[in-house]
């Protein structure tokens, strides 16, 4: 009967397997079909686009967004003056994700395109969480790789029951055996690659025969230790700190490599902040230029309108210079300027939107920002040898590549260890005992534990294990690969140094060229203004034709736009120089700091500090691997020494001072003299006409320049000592004013004119 059932089951399995085949089968159900259930979606749909059910919260800047400013939607806005420091501080405060102006390009006619890098590549965006994410990575973070050296506690408990046959007495007898097995151990991997194990085992075995065989049961316990120490491959503190225990050729994940990964992530974060600050400066000065360009074409439009009215009046009075052709020519120029005004207004709104985006503000909120700082027109000279040496030591990209080279050097050291054979020292020892009783309260000798502690069975083992791959093919290939990677990274550093040298030279060239161009365009602007005044007077007296007046008006607008374009390019070149030589964050007063830890972390740090203070210091004179870092990177190198004569002279009132110290930082070194600058008009309200007549002023090089003497009561300039350029706000020769205007949007607390951005810690 049992055989028949098994044959039937096997036949049914074979029939089902043959009928299944490789083709889809019509499903068959044993129960009744419920016709009320919709089953078409399961049969007709395999993949469809769905919307995720995720917890998301939009920011206030997104929820409170208003319609953007346009040519036809420009009424009811409040013009708010904003300084560059406020823009940078607001942008950093609102930048959990570091934004950039990718997709936006600037030209003579303003900005074009819209930011789109976050939508195109969100995973590649830099955030304040990136360093912490790298640090806490469960595979490659520092804590994760240190966990390989943590003590492991392993335990197991098994219970079993078996039936055996005993044929010792001439006939078969079935014996039931039951048992319990318990094991617990502590295992620790040390820094030299060795493994230490302490283990306790306990076993219980009992028999229960069905016949008259003798019944028996007993307990067995034991303590043992085991040591396995690599002597060649995998041995040493240096290898295990670089590659980690259990490493394979080509993959190294030790604590030193993890530490360098964290350092590289910090450099990447610093790079993103530097680029962000540069984008804020570019957007700020481009908005300044948009206001200047709009003001220039507005003045041209108003002049064209006035000329058109004069031509119309002369036309109606049949006077000379009032022909129909001249009237139409004046009318055409007015509409030409009117179109330029509309185009400039649209460009201004685009530039203001770019500044809003980089500051983390909504696209429109009823306010229109206007730069309150004036661009620097002071002659700034950099010593090439000094700034080139500073670039080689402070450039962020070069510093990152040096970390990559250091990582490659460590990986080469680790790969050479694999050229050694595997030779391990193995040793173990222990004691065990057995008895029918596990613990006897009347006497330890009559129990398994008593047997182990008093007259237990001692055992030990010591020996060597050798493993040699014949040829070391993989190992040699790994060493060769590490050598090639190191050579490539060093070659990349050399080419990067060459490239950054060229970029620095390009920035210096742009700085010099735009300063010379600004002088030329300024004189051209003054000459164009004189021509307009002369031709207008001559036209009013009837001694000059209208076309010459219109041409002079166009040339004045073009000269004014070209002048301000050269001034803005001069300031952007100054930003580029500081970007290349790694001092832009210092130049704009930005300091990178680590965010706060939890209170438990501070408690643990204090406890460890007390323990180390009580410990005995042993100076071994070396560390393995060797030193990989020169210490903390000094973000601001322009700090003054209180004992420095320059600082003492500055305190005596011979210099302009600006207190910027906080968190133990000293005051910034400021110039030993005020560099004469060309005053530039404060940004006028749209439609406001130009200032008073020009006068003559000499700059720091002795060149005679014609300028418009309209210095604002408080002006902002950038002065320089050596290579350190500092932005100061001055109202007279001996006092410095702070930032008094309230910051727009969400602004952090001001800390003595220095902006601090923190790295988030989970």
In short:
This protein is of the alpha+beta class and 762 residues long. Helix content is 44%, strand content 18%. Strand 2 and strand 3 (110-112) form a beta hairpin.
Show the helix and strand layout.
Layout: H1 2-20, H2 40-44, H3 60-63, E1 78-82, H4 84-93, E2 105-107, E3 110-112, H5 117-120, H6 130-135, H7 142-146, E4 152-166, E5 173-189, E6 195-209, E7 217-230, H8 237-242, H9 255-316, H10 324-359, E8 367-371, H11 384-394, H12 396-417, E9 422-435, H13 448-455, E10 457-467, H14 473-541, H15 546-580, H16 584-587, E11 590-594, H17 599-614, H18 645-654, E12 695-698, E13 704-707, E14 715-721, E15 724-730, E16 755-759
Parallel strand pairs: 1-8, 11-16
Antiparallel strand pairs: 2-3, 4-5, 5-6, 6-7, 7-9, 9-10, 12-13, 14-15
Helix pairs in contact: 4-9, 9-10, 9-12, 9-15, 12-14, 14-15
Write structural notes for this entry.
- The chain is an alpha+beta fold and 762 residues long.
- 44% of the residues lie in helices and 18% in strands.
- The chain has 18 helices and 16 strands.
- The chain has a six-stranded antiparallel β-sheet.
- α4 (84-93) packs across α9 (255-316) and α9 runs antiparallel to α12 (396-417).
- It is elongated and about 140 Å long.
- The chain starts with a helix and ends with a strand.
């Amino acid at each position: 009967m049992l055989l028949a059932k098994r044959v039937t089951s096997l036949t049914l399995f074979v029939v089902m397997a043959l009928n299944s085949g490789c083709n889809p089968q019509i499903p068959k159900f044993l129960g009744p079909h419920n016709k009320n259930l919709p089953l078409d979606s399961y049969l007709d749909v395999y993949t469809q686009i769905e919307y995720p059910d995720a917890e998301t919260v939009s920011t206030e800047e997104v929820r409170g967004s208003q319609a953007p400013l346009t040519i036809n939607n420009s009424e009811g806005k409040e013009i708010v003056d904003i300084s560059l420091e406020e823009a940078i501080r607001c942008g950093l405060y609102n930048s959990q994700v570091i934004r950039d102006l990718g997709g936006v390009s600037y030209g003579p006619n303003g900005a074009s395109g819209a930011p789109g890098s976050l939508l195109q590549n969100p995973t590649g965006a830099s955030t304040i969480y990136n360093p912490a994410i790298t640090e806490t990575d469960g595979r490659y973070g520092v804590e994760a790789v240190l966990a390989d050296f943590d003590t492991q506690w392993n335990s197991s408990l098994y219970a079993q029951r078996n039936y055996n046959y005993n044929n010792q007495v001439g006939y078969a007898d079935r014996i039931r055996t039951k048992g319990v097995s318990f094991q617990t151990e502590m295992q620790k991997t040390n820094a030299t690659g060795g493994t230490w194990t302490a283990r306790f085992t306990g076993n219980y075995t009992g028999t229960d025969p069905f016949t008259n065989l003798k019944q028996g049961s007993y307990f067995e316990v034991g303590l043992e230790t085991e040591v396995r120490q690599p002597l060649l491959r995998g041995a040493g503190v240096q290898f295990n700190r670089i590659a980690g225990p259990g490493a394979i050729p080509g993959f190294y994940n030790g604590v030193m490599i993890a530490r360098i990964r964290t350092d590289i992530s910090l450099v990447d974060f610093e790079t993103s902040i530097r680029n962000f600050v540069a984008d804020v400066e570019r957007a700020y000065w481009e908005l300044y230029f948009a206001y200047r360009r709009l003001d220039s074409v507005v003045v041209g439009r108003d002049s064209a309108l006035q000329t058109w009215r004069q031509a119309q009046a002369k036309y109606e009075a049949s006077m000379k210079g009032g022909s129909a052709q001249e009237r139409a020519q004046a009318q055409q120029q007015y509409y030409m300027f009117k179109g330029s005004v509309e185009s400039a207004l649209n460009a201004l709104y685009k530039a203001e939107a770019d500044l809003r985006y980089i500051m983390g503000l909504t696209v429109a909120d009823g306010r229109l920002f206007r730069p309150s700082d004036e661009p620097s027109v002071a002659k700034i000279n950099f010593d090439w040898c000094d700034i080139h040496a500073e670039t080689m030591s402070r450039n962020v990209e070069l510093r990152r590549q040096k970390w990559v080279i250091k990582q490659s050097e460590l990986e080469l050291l680790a790969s050479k260890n694999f050229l050694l054979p595997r030779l391990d020292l193995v040793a173990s020892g222990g004691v065990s005992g057995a008895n029918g009783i596990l613990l006897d309260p009347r006497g330890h000798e009559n129990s398994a534990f008593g047997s182990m502690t008093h007259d237990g069975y001692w055992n030990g083992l010591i020996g060597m294990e050798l493993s040699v791959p014949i040829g070391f093919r993989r190992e040699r290939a790994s060493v060769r690969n590490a050598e090639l990677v190191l050579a490539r990274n060093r070659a990349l550093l050399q080419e990067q140094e060459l490239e950054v040298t060229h970029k620095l030279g390009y920035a210096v060239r742009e700085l010099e060229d735009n300063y010379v161009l600004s002088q030329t365009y300024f004189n051209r602007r003054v000459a164009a203004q004189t021509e307009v005044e002369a031709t207008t007077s001559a036209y009013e007296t009837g001694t000059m034709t209208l076309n010459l007046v219109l041409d002079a008006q166009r040339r004045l607008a073009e000269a004014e736009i070209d002048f301000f374009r050269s001034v803005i390019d001069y300031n952007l070149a100054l930003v580029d120089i500081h970007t290349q030589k790694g001092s832009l964050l210092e130049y704009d007063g930005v300091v990178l700091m680590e965010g706060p830890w939890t209170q438990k972390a501070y408690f643990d740090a204090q406890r460890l500090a007390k323990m180390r203070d009580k410990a005995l210091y042993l100076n071994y004179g070396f560390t393995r691997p060797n030193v990989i870092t020169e210490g903390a990177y000094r973000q601001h190198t322009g700090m003054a020494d209180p004992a420095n004569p320059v600082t003492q002279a500055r305190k005596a009132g011979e210099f302009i001072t600006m207190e910027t110290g906080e968190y133990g930082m000293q005051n910034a070194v400021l110039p030993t003299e005020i560099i004469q600058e060309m005053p530039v008009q404060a940004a006028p309200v749209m439609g406001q006409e130009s200032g008073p007549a020009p006068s003559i002023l000499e700059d720091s090089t002795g060149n005679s320049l014609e300028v418009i003497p309209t210095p604002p009561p408080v002006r902002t300039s950038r002065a320089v000592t050596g290579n350190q350029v500092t932005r100061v706000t001055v109202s007279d020769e001996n006092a410095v004013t702070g930032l008094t205007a309230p910051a727009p949007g969400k602004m952090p607390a001001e800390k003595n004119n220095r902006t601090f951005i923190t790295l988030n810690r989970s």
